[in-house]
Amino acid sequence: MPITKGFRALVDVANAQITTYTVAQVCERLGVDPSLQVVDIRDPRELEREGTVPGALHAPRGMLEFWVDPESPYYKPAFGDESKEFVLFCGAGWRSALATKALKDMGMTNVAHIDGGFAEWLKQSAPTETLEAHKARSKAART
């Protein structure tokens, strides 16, 4: 069966319907805007290999809709904070565009994504941290 609508078309449709920020726009808010919650939707192996954005919440793409829905047995209360704007990113901005659209389709209005994903983040020398540093920071925040 031939594909009648490829991934690029799906990403284009998503991008036309969602809020997209540049790396510079997110960097301006990072660490100073308490309403910003950056969300890394990449696979754990990508985080191990490349690191992540400081303060990012990790929510693997495959679990995102389940973690966001309060009716799901996998719900994560962090996503219920309506004072936050959840800004998603992936490797190149494709998965995060689709994920942002999915969350909008679920009814979230406080969601956006980063144009170009983590590749663009690195290209612009935006701040990063290793997975180990990220885990240590997350653990310290919980105690």
Keywords:
single chain, 143 residues, alpha/beta, Oxidized Rhodanese, domain 1, 5-stranded parallel β-sheet, 7 helices, globular
Overview of this structure, please?
The chain is α/β, with parallel strands linked by helices and 143 residues long. It has a single domain, classed as Rhodanese-like domain (Oxidized Rhodanese, domain 1, 3-Layer(aba) Sandwich). 43% of the residues lie in helices and 13% in strands. It has 7 helices and 5 strands; from the N terminus they run αβαβαβαβαβαα. It has helices at 7-17, 23-29, 44-50, 64-68, 94-105, 117-123, 131-142, and strands at 19-21, 36-40, 57-58, 85-89, 111-114. It has a 5-stranded parallel sheet. Helix 3 (44-50) links the parallel strand 2 and strand 3. Helix 1 (7-17) packs across helix 5 (94-105). The longest helix is centred in the last third of the chain and has 12 residues, at 94-105. The protein is globular and about 50 Å long. The mean pLDDT is 94.
Can you count the beta strands? 5
Count of domains: 1
Main β-sheet description: 5 strands, parallel
Question: Residue ranges: pLDDT <50 for 5 or more in a row?
Answer: none
Considering the protein shown, what is the CATH homologous superfamily? Rhodanese-like domain
Residue fraction in strands: 5-15%
Instruction: Give the SSE order as H and E letters.
Output: HEHEHEHEHEHH
- The structural class is alpha/beta
